[in-house]
Write a structure and sequence with these properties.
This protein is an all-alpha fold. It has four helices and no strands. Helix 2 runs antiparallel to helix 3 and helix 3 runs antiparallel to helix 4.
Length: about 100
């Protein structure tokens, strides 16, 4: 019986360490909402709001990089590398759309 209580404490500690990444989840939710709103604005009038493509790619790059950092802190290196590389790619697309539309 005493052993099972220790196991429960270990699980509790793991949950706490996962919950420390709540800041990244909040940033991810905000960036996701910004992407949805920006995309909705683009669908209203694509020609008038074509500069919003830059914002969409910037939000997506920020979101992927933030999630990559979150997984890097969790010691999940493969997911972190893939997400950070996706963030770098989207940042490059952001720069290209900035120069194309501005």
């Amino acid at each position: 019986m005493l052993f099972s209580k220790k196991k429960g404490r270990k699980d509790e500690g793991r949950r706490r360490s996962v919950n420390k990444s709540g800041v990244y989840d909040v940033i991810n939710a905000i960036m996701g909402l910004c992407i949805i709103l920006s995309t909705f604005v683009i669908f209203i009038d694509r020609v008038k709001y074509e500069k919003m493509f830059t914002a969409v790619f910037l939000f997506a790059a920020t979101m992927n990089t933030c999630m990559g950092i979150k997984y890097l802190k969790r010691q999940e290196r493969l997911k972190a590398i893939v997400l950070i590389l996706a963030g770098i790619f989207l940042m490059a697309v952001t720069v290209l759309t900035f120069f194309a539309f501005w």
